[in-house]
Design goal:
The complex is a heterodimer of chains A (302) and B (294).
Chain A lengths: L1 H5 L3 H46 L4 H4 L13 H8 L6 H32 L5 H13 L6 H10 L7 H8 L4 H12 L4 H8 L4 H30 L2 H6 L8 H11 L5 H21 L1 H11 L4
Chain B lengths: L7 H27 L2 E2 L7 E2 L3 H8 L2 H33 L5 H14 L3 H10 L5 H8 L11 H13 L3 H12 L3 H9 L4 H28 L4 H7 L10 H10 L4 H29 L9
Antiparallel strand pairs in B: 1-2
Chain lengths: 302, 294
């Protein structure tokens, strides 16, 4: 600024001032544009969800009466009636069923994928290249092509109408994506500590359990969270394998309530939809850092 | 680690190897065989040669319609979604306030998008008297018959996928943030404009990520099921009857396992051919750091 005042050449000075101002103006215009776009897109992203939650508290006559999301006469009747469902079971029963699928699937995934990723990242063995190539190939293999024989296999095993077909493949490191993600993560961790432990006489199993697993924890949390989301959202799997209503997970129960609910009981269906997405939403907000990191580290489907 | 049995790694891999054999490789081969059979679950599969495929390509109008709709769906959804995800990621990559808020807001739909509940919500949003039509009328436009008209119905399903652009965006954003800032400084000293900087520096550097997103989104789009199943049930006039829906109904409604396998294999071959084309063409447009090519 001192130079500015003392500058003998006023014309140059004014010119510089003009350029600065123009630059400023351009910056303001482009910032406005950016925030404008982001806000508008944000509105399109979030308003449907906000509307969904609001509408689930509306009376049936109000749901299609206006575009606002605030209910004029808030009512919990959608939740009360929806929770009862049109089956002998409450919606809580279906949540419990979902839990019975999610839990073994997450635990099986975490254990099997850790072991397999450790094997890939830290050992040399015959056939490693081919096996790793097969991992990439399964990553790209569309499920649609294996689904029918898998169904026949599980039928022959007597697993139809049970939860086994939904989680057992995952417990055999069936989700190649997670193995891949953990291998990438492990490769970036230096091996010094593991080698020191080996020198001190630990075997590979102890190294895995006491050194690798603690280091791998953040990545493992991402794996568990994604598996949780995908299993909660899974619809086609239960649709194919689960046939008795008392074993339905929430996704099937919601579909059932659409099919059986009286056509005008909209708030009941909306209320059940809100409940269905609630667990995923809560988990996401509690742990979103792991989602963003997981997805940025390995790239993810979705 | 040296000194270990050289087969020790295979012990750790054993769950994967068993799973690969039992749940992937075996079903994969079986599926190929079944596609040449007539199999309705009641009696053993009967080998019928190319009959299924012959019927598919000469006599099955539902298949032709379904295949066409699937291709239209994939070739509109994937490019639109990637372009939009990249556009938003570029904007978010400027030093902005509230970037975390926006990133989260844009990502939430991807987390929930596959859920049946969201498909249900979509049905309400795009209903004749739903809020989408209310909003259109609010700005003076005609309401649209979203589910009654074949073109609109498919577009509604596409919009549901576009709404879930967040995961592709997060991947783009991570790639953009990892670009060395000094490259931009050098470009600006050389007098490069914003557009040419983006085109000549940013784009080449993120081509690996574009390639990754392209493959993933494509494989996924070809397998879209929940949206059309819940929102439109494949209608009207089979305009949203994507191949996965057709396969599902042939296999698990009509229990025509052989025919369904043949459709699945056609779908698989299409995905594979497009993936191979993408990989092959990637030599010409994907840039890997450290690569000698200019």
């Amino acid at each position: 600024m001192a130079d500015h005042v003392l500058s003998p050449n006023l014309a140059v000075d004014r010119e510089a001032d003009r350029i600065l101002k123009a630059q400023r103006r351009r910056q303001i215009v482009s910032a406005t544009f950016r925030y404008g776009v982001l806000t508008l897109v944000g509105l399109f992203m979030l308003y449907p969800l906000i509307w969904l939650v609001g509408a689930s508290f509306k009376t049936n006559s109000e749901i299609f009466a206006g575009a606002g999301f605030i209910p004029h006469e808030p009512t919990a009747s959608g939740y009360v009636n929806g929770w009862k469902t049109s089956t002998p079971y409450t919606f809580g029963h279906f949540f419990w069923n979902t839990f019975l699928i999610v839990m073994p699937k997450i635990i099986g995934t975490a254990i099997s994928c850790t072991a397999v990723a450790y094997g890939f990242a830290r050992f040399d063995f015959p056939g490693k290249k081919i096996l790793f190539a097969s991992l990439i190939a399964t990553l790209l293999l569309p499920n649609v092509v294996t689904r029918i024989p898998q169904y026949l296999l599980f039928r022959d095993l007597g697993w139809l109408d049970s939860y086994l077909p939904l989680w057992v493949p995952s417990a055999f490191a069936g989700d190649a994506f997670f193995v891949f993600m953990l291998v990438q993560f492990l490769r970036a961790i230096p091996r010094d500590m593991e080698e020191a432990a080996r020198v001190d006489g630990a075997n590979t199993w102890q190294v895995l359990l006491f050194i690798v697993v603690p280091l791998l924890t953040p990545a493992l949390i991402s794996v568990c969270l994604f598996q949780f989301m995908w299993t909660m959202n899974d619809f086609l799997g239960p649709l194919i394998y689960i046939s008795s209503v008392d074993k339905f997970p929430v996704s099937l129960a919601l579909k059932l309530s659409i099919d059986t609910t009286e056509a005008f009981e909209w708030n009941r269906i909306l209320a059940m939809s809100v409940l269905t997405i609630m667990p995923a939403l809560i988990v996401f907000f509690l742990a979103q850092k792991y989602f963003i990191e997981g997805i940025s580290a390995g790239g993810v489907k979705g | 680690m040296s000194g270990d049995n050289r087969f020790l790694g295979l012990v750790y891999l054993s769950p994967y190897i068993i799973g690969l054999m039992v749940f992937t490789a075996l079903p994969f081969a079986a599926s190929f065989y079944l596609s040449f059979t007539d199999y309705n679950l009641m009696s053993a599969p009967v080998f019928t040669g190319l009959d299924n495929y012959w019927k598919l390509f000469t006599g099955d109008r539902t298949f032709r319609k379904s295949l066409w709709v699937t291709l239209v769906y994939v070739f509109t959804t994937v490019p639109l979604k990637l372009a939009f995800a990249l556009f938003i990621a570029v904007i978010l990559n400027y030093k902005l306030k509230f970037i975390n808020f926006f990133r989260t807001a844009f990502y939430v739909p991807s987390i929930l998008g596959g859920s049946i509940a969201i498909a249900v919500m979509w049905r309400y949003l795009f209903a004749d008297v739903g809020i989408v039509n209310m909003a259109l009328q609010g700005v003076g436009l005609e309401p649209v018959n979203w589910f009654g008209d074949p073109t609109n119905a498919l577009f509604t399903i596409t919009l549901l996928r576009l709404w879930q652009f967040g995961s592709a965006m997060v991947i783009f954003l991570a790639a953009l943030q990892s670009i060395d800032k000094s490259l931009y400084e050098a470009a600006s000293i050389d007098g490069a404009g914003k557009f040419s900087t983006f085109w000549h520096i940013t784009m080449p550097l993120i081509t690996p990520v574009i390639f990754f997103n392209l493959i993933m989104q494509m494989v996924q789009a070809f397998q879209e099921f929940n949206g059309p199943y819940i929102i439109t049930q494949g209608g009207p006039l089979k305009s949203t009857y994507l191949l996965p829906l057709y396969i599902y109904e042939e296999a698990f409604k009509r229990f025509d396992m052989g025919y369904a396998s043949a459709i699945a294999w056609v779908l698989f071959v299409i995905i594979m051919v497009l993936t191979v084309i993408a990989f092959w063409s990637s030599r010409h447009w994907v840039y890997y750091a450290g690569d000698k090519r200019s």
